Amino acid sequence: MSDLQQQIAELGLKILGVLEVDEEDRLPALPGGDTARLLLLVGNAGPDMWPVFSASAEYADGNDNPLDRWSQRVAEKLTERFGVTPLFPFGGPPHWPFVTWAQRARACHSSPLGMALHPRYGLWHAYRFALLTNADKEHLALPADSSADSDCVSCTDQPCLSACPVNAFTGSEYLYKTCAEFLAREPDYPCNHLGCAARRACPVGREFLYPPAQAAFHTEVFVRVNTD
Q1: Model pTM?
Q2: What is the DSSP code string of 13-82?
Q3: DSSP code for 15
Q4: Cα–Cα distance between 145 and 142 in angstroms, integer?
Q5: What share of the chain is helix, strand, coil (3-state, %, to 5)?
Q6: Interval 184-207: pLDDT, tens
Q7: Looking at residue 167, what DSSP letter applies?
Q8: Distance CA 145, CA 131 (A)
């Protein structure tokens, strides 16, 4: 494992996908002006990030967007130490195509919920930032790509589509306003405290479910943003 990857792991994060890039991708240069060769998709998977983030100043200060601000701070520290260029799925413009990058890196499949399904972590992962680097690919303990068919192909029951209490997932559309408004009206409903029932119904990566405090944090943010 490289020093960069070790630092990422100490943040409770993982390299979830690796993409070879070139000048045609029109990405920013590295701090020294060179063109990057690799884009590392860095994110959380399962509960490992939560103890680190929940102990941070951003989590405790009561200001908006604590996870985005934490992600930006820790990514910029990696920049200072390793000479990488960070890109984020928030802010902008430019609005970077994280889902497209993940698909090109074969790091995920599309699920019936419209969410990215990781072959190991299921629906319990998220991209926090990307790092452009010239690191030697051979020195990174890289994840296997998901070139095989998605688990959804062989999942005939698709319990994720029937688990939502308000049928917010139609198989072709996510009625996120319907979801958020229901959770706002029903603060004691389990989705508010344990995470989305549809995501929990998916059999892939169940051992990586978020702990209740982490699930509640993400749900609270989702409800607040989509009911304002």
Answers
A1: 0.92
A2: -EEEEEEE--GGG-PPPPTTSPPPSEEEEEEEETTTHHHHHTTSHHHHS--S-HHHHHHHHHHHHHHHHH
A3: E
A4: 9
A5: 40, 15, 45
A6: 999 999 999 999 999 999 999 999
A7: -
A8: 18
